[in-house]
Amino acid sequence: MKELVYRVSFPKLGINLNVNPIALKIGNLSIHWYGVIIAVGFLLAFFYTLSRRREFYLSRENVETLTLSASICAIIFARIYYIVFYPGDFYLRNPSKMLCINEGGIAIYGAIIGGFLAILVTSKIIKKPLFSILDLMCLGLLIGQSIGRWGNFVNQEAFGTSTTLPWGMMSENTFGEMVHPCFLYESLGCLVCFIFLHIYSLKFKFFSGQIFLMYMALYGILRALIEGIRTDSLLIPGTSLRISQILGLLIFFASFIILTTKLLKKRL
To answer: What share of the chain in percent tops pLDDT 70?
Structure first.
């Protein structure tokens, strides 16, 4: 069977690439770039959190325990979220596909929910302050998100509506149209958020939980804006509402209100 290779181009930039979603084949085992990229993002996020653990009153063992529990729950909830909001009855008709994460199909909001619940429980077990942990872990998460979005590029998914902008992208999956490379927008957006919050956490942090609230507000509005031009959005069943856009806006407003209230109280 012939391997799928995408012919990806950015016509106005003169960039043409052949992108094979499979990084390596060993016998009948295929190792996908999607999984490799996610793993690289995970490792860099882990080493970053490990390097700053003392600033957030955590030991190496604490970070390892938190990372393990949060990662397991994040993967499970990310897949469940995707399956629940996937349009139609594909997964009901093909239940064996529910476990095929290597083919893509995870949702970041599901990962955030799962990771948060795991950290909530684990923080009680290791007897460490929840909001201090969240401040550190969300910084690592931004690294993982920025790198992980390139998994969507190699799978040629998570792109947007047609565009005439200089960085418009084309491939077999865009059906001959130049489209918004939404994966790139989110990757760069998360990178900018990480750099900003990293510097802010070093010099300007006022209270535990502030970096986490800022992350939620920044990522919420970023995702809401990008989701507005995506063509593969997950919808609330029975509606045309984009679940990630609605959640992004709700998270942005809730985080912004809480953050503003706390900062005003600190300054009074």
So the answer is: 97
Structural domain for 205, as ranges? 156-268
Q: Are residues 261 and 169 in the same domain?
A: yes
CA distance 113 to 74: 7
Give residues with Cβ within 8 angstroms of 94, minimum separation 6: none
User: pTM for the complete prediction?
Assistant: 0.92
Q: What is the pLDDT of residues 197-219, one digit of tens each?
A: 999 999 899 999 999 999 999 99
Cβ atoms of residues 104 and 34 within 8 Å: yes
Interatomic CA distance for residues 252 and 31, integer angstroms:
37
Q: Looking at 108, 141, 174, which one is the last position of a domain?
A: 141
CA distances from 63 to 44, 139, 148, 164 (A): 14, 13, 21, 45
Q: Answer for the pair 33, 104: CB distance below 8 angstroms, yes or no.
A: no
Record the tokens describing residue 25, joined without a space.
Answer: 């084949």
Beta partners for residue 10, in sequence order: 15
pLDDT at position 17 is 96
Q: Check if the beta carbon of residue 172 is closer than 8 Å to that of residue 21.
A: no
3-state secondary structure of 17: strand
